[in-house]
Amino acid sequence: MQQVLGEVTDMGEDLVDLIATCQRHTKCSTSYCLKKKKGKQECRFDFPKPLQPVTSVTSQDDGEPEC
Question: Is the dihedral of CA 52, 56, 57, 60 positive or negative?
Answer without folding.
Answer: negative
